[in-house]
Amino acid sequence: MSEASAPARKPAKGKYELDERLKAYQGVWVFVEHEQGEVHPVSWELLGEGRKLADTLGVELCGVVLGAPGLRTRRFCDEAFFHGADACYLVEDPVLANYRNEPFTKGLTELVNTYQPEILLLGATTQGRDLAGSVATTLQTGLTADCTELRIDPDNRSLAASRPTFGGSLLCTILTLNYRPQMATVRPRVMAMPDRDAARSGRIIEHALHLLETDIVTKVLDYIPDARQDKPQLPFADVIVAGGRGMKKPENFQLIRDLAAVLGGEVGASRPVVQAGWVELDRQVGQSGKTVRPKLYIAAGISGAVQHRVGMEGSDVIIAINTDPNAPIFDFATYGIVGNAMTILPALTEVFRQELALAKIAV
Amino acid sequence: MHIVVCIKQVPDSAQIRVHPVTNTIMRQGVPAIVNPYDLFSLEEALRLKDRFGGRVTVLTMGPPQAEAALRKCVSFGADEAILVTDRAFAGADTLATSYALAAAIRKIGENEAVDLVFCGKQTIDGDTAQVGPGIAKRLELQLLTYVSQVDDLDLAQRAIRVQRRAEGGVQVLQTTLPCLITMLEGTNEMRFASMDNMFRAARAEVRVWNREQAGIEDVARIGLKGSPTVVSKVFAPKAKEQKAEMIETESDQPRDIALTVVGKLFTQHAKLRGGLAKKLA
Ligand SMILES: Cc1cc2nc3c(=O)[nH]c(=O)nc-3n(C[C@H](O)[C@H](O)[C@H](O)COP(=O)(O)OP(=O)(O)OC[C@H]3O[C@@H](n4cnc5c(N)ncnc54)[C@H](O)[C@@H]3O)c2cc1C
Ligand SMILES: Cc1cc2nc3c(=O)[nH]c(=O)nc-3n(C[C@H](O)[C@H](O)[C@H](O)COP(=O)(O)OP(=O)(O)OC[C@H]3O[C@@H](n4cnc5c(N)ncnc54)[C@H](O)[C@@H]3O)c2cc1C
């Protein structure tokens, strides 16, 4: 209940025999989420991860596309094949023109009940979370939120979904044993983007949804797109320079901004710094902030708590600056510098400026 | 108009300390608070009550101590508070939690029909954002998640118009009551508790319901039994095969350190140098 720990129920060890009725559920599905004619990249990331799960299980990987006819839905199926799907379930219906909870819940639930997948993955986005919670409740099955790792448990062929536990530096693995499908959401950028192979193709399985617009209560009156440059785009930045509580005071964040500017990167931060109001909410990296995968992540005065780590450990190269040689961030950084961020950062800014000036001439 | 706001008591994460050796969280002495996300929903409910009249009932499922969180909500202006508590609820995952809360809301509705249910966007402990959609589905309420603004409410027509955050923009949605709303954080600011309400909260009678009183007959659908998800293990994140390469220099001069690390970076990750230069060129 409101005990601050995950429910402490352990499944019996060893082999696990699934109910006969549930053995009919086969295959790994990924919900292909789109908005305003664009597929959310998290869907491709999930196909990449889903491919591994399907291969381990020896089953098919399928995309699920719901949308209005003519809405580029077939293009989305092709893209799903390019990103690893063997087949795509396609529901085309005018009521699916914009995302709305009711028709999408009906459509996805009906597909699951008809074709019975064993695993269903969705992005942990405003659309995916809205839909996943409704679908899992309708299907009366388990749903694991915001997973950072998905594996197949060799003992029982079930999905072992891991996510950070509350407050501690630990992760927990959650299983959905006697229910199917096993559902999980994963946040954008947590999984790597798979290579796109335009030579791949697959089957499209069309399914008709018999819904009338007059039966759907909620109407979309308007859609107001965000102005592009309004928000920092941390999840897709190539370089991020992030500061934590070790930066001591808000004025010192200028050192972070200076280095980010020289590298053409974005400024990131740990949660305490965001909560103290030193930088905007959109710049928080971690479990309750953004997940990022830059080519270079520089962390200054950040200890490397697991909630921060899960948001940035997919970075190609991590440089950590910390006064404490035992800071946990050195356990997973690429390069570690034991030292005072207030003197190291300006030196780095200067050296990068010079180095890049030289490199630019060479370009 | 009758509004039910679901709130959860959670440990104050700002006060949580992690045991340096065992890596487990040290719970002793950590104060419990109302889940911060729930306050945006409570404030929105109170604003609707201010404009349109009616009553706000706050509801929580939790241990007996959760009563304190309900009193806090009464001090902000909630009219009534209900605590659903029973050992049988222990170990509930989100499916079992939404089952119990939906039953309690149905029960509340027997006295006075419920027009609107509010939930927080998510909690800071379980952090799943799944309970709101679950309750809506069970009660067949229209679901409006990530609402940044309630534009309009027409009680005569039973119509509501809201702005909902989507990934690349904002949806303007129109639906009918009853519905369930989860508010986005930062969309309003919780009012101060008035002196009157603080006194009222201190004296308020929190109604305490056990399983039967909450109208739950099927024990197989609550608590551990009613939870499809099972925690199989808790573990520390994998140590990387390789720890960080520590930068050692003869002098402790920042410039030497910077030259060394940038040198290593650009030789061991040569592509990065070219990529950066191209981007900046
Ligand atoms: C539910 C939940 C969700 C959370 N979500 C997030 C999240 O999304 N993102 C997140 O970041 N955190 C999150 N946290 C918080 C997380 O547990 C840590 O508390 C937080 O990441 C610590 O931030 P920090 O590293 O900046 O501060 P600290 O842990 O205080 O570390 C400061 C570091 O700075 C070093 N330092 C001090 N002085 C200097 C100096 N002069 N130069 C260099 N180094 C110096 C210190 O040695 C120390 O290692 C969450 C916590 C919970 C409970
Ligand atoms: C570390 C950890 C991981 C977990 N992972 C999962 C998981 O992946 N899947 C799963 O099904 N369960 C999971 N659980 C169990 C889950 O946290 C509990 O079921 C919990 O009772 C409700 O979920 P939540 O805290 O995530 O709420 P959320 O769904 O995030 O809460 C949304 C809103 O619902 C309302 N609400 C939630 N709980 C209550 C309540 N008790 N009383 C009144 N209103 C409430 C509040 O308005 C809240 O803001 C996990 C628990 C922990 C501690």
From TrEMBL, chain A:
Pfam families in the record: ETF, ETF_alpha
Among its keywords, does the record have Magnesium? no
Q: Which residues form the Electron transfer flavoprotein alpha/beta-subunit N-terminal domain?
A: 28-220
Q: Does the keyword section mention Flavoprotein?
A: yes
The transmembrane segments are: none
Residues of the signal peptide: none
* Keywords per UniProt: Electron transport, FAD, Flavoprotein, Transport
Query: What Gene3D superfamilies does the record point to?
Result: HUPs (3.40.50.620), TPP-binding domain (3.40.50.1220)
Query: Into which family does the record put it?
Result: Belongs to the ETF alpha-subunit/FixB family.
Q: What is this protein called?
A: Electron transfer flavoprotein subunit alpha
Q: What is the originating organism of this protein?
A: Aromatoleum toluvorans
UniProtKB/TrEMBL annotation, chain B:
Q: SUPFAM superfamilies under this entry? A: Adenine nucleotide alpha hydrolases-like
The Electron transfer flavoprotein alpha/beta-subunit N-terminal domain sits at 22-218
- SMART domains for this protein: ETF
Q: Which UniProt keywords apply?
A: Electron transport, Transport
Matching PROSITE patterns, A to Z? ETF_BETA
Under InterPro entries, the record lists: ET-Flavoprotein_bsu_CS, ETF_a/b_N, ETF_b, ETF_beta_N, Rossmann-like_a/b/a_fold
| UniProt family annotation | Belongs to the ETF beta-subunit/FixA family.
Name of the protein in its database record? Protein FixA
Source species of the chain: Aromatoleum toluvorans
